[in-house]
Amino acid sequence: MKRGMIQALLAVVLTLVGRVDEALAGPPNEQHTLIVVDGSGSMAAVRTDGTTRFQEAIRRAKQLVSAPMGINRYFSIWMFHGSTYTSVQAFQDPATTLNTLNQMTLPGGSTPLAHAVCDAVDVLLAYKKGDPAVVATKVLHLVSDGEENSTPSSAQCYGPPSATDFPNLTPNSWEWKVRNKLRTGKPDGSGAGGLPVVLDVTVLNGYVSFAGTGSSVPEFSEKGELVASRSVANMANFFSFLQGLSAETGGSYTTIVDSRPAPVFGDTNQDYCVDATDYNLVLNNYGFTVPPANPAADLNLDNVVDYYDYMLVVNNQGQGSGCGTTSSFVK
Predict the structure, then answer these.
(1) Alpha carbon of 25 to those of 131, 141, 170: distances in Å?
(2) Choice among 161-170, 183-192, 227-236 with the minimum mean pLDDT
(3) Burial group, residue 3, by CB count within 10 angstroms (0-12, 13-18, 19+)
(4) What string of DSSP letters covers 252-263?
(5) Cα(324)–Cα(327) distance, rounded to whole angstroms?
(6) What burial class does residue 65 get, using C-beta atoms within 10 Å of its C-beta: 0-12 exposed, 13-18 middle, 19+ buried?
(7) pTM (2 d.p.)
(8) What phi and psi, each to the nearest 5 degrees, are found at residue 3?
(9) Domains within the chain, CATH numbers bracketed
(10) Residue 199: what pLDDT?
(11) pLDDT reported for residue 327
């Protein structure tokens, strides 16, 4: 009991130290975003709208890159597959990033998610580190449809699946290490803490069952072995882990279901329509940083609800397959 209380108090202290450091540094003048795209075989699954999950992942990434923001933004793109990941693009401006996204193709393979995420944190934190003129928000944007299944044993965040659910993760599990990496910069949690890494997650749901159905898209290891499927319960726990982790870091969590239309930018509650509900949410959180503002109102993911989020809602009012004839709200 005492040990648990000490660990909890230490976590609070580290978080407060990080916030003090951030306050002293001043408001962010840049955003550095590393987009990590799932390139595994199951991303070839075809949605009911005729696109693949991979195509939807690229569309989602392009929306993110194109979103207006009041500070300079730089993007890097990684893709994980097999037992490794590929750095598709180092940090570049939005225009270059959009061109890169347009040229990406799906390699296939299995899902070394923990390996890619933890190494991405290192690269993200190192970019422009030590530049006195830069105060940057660091964002890791993950787009995936499935659970970790192929991180090599030599990787820093290798480990067995957690036997317990988020937030009470099993020590030395891969989930426990990924969480520590985002919070402290070290898989074992021994880092300084307070590192401003925001995790935004887009999950392409309707997870593929690899065996036993004609519509499944199998994932194979680099040795050609079929990767075992995960149960519905296990996948639910995995998605809960990602959702909890994104909330804990001040990020967003978006689900895109295969059998439903893709979400529209400006749709804060994912009801497939940009309407007065979305408009009111942005207005009610206007001027606040995230947190305490509702992350759903931060449409361009810059950790503040401001004019740019307002304009995304206004410019997309009435858009979406769920809209009726009276969805417009600003004349």
Answers:
(1) 12, 24, 35
(2) 227-236
(3) exposed
(4) -EEEEETTSPPP
(5) 6
(6) buried
(7) 0.78
(8) -60, -40
(9) 29-257 (3.40.50.410), 263-331 (1.10.1330.10)
(10) 93
(11) 58
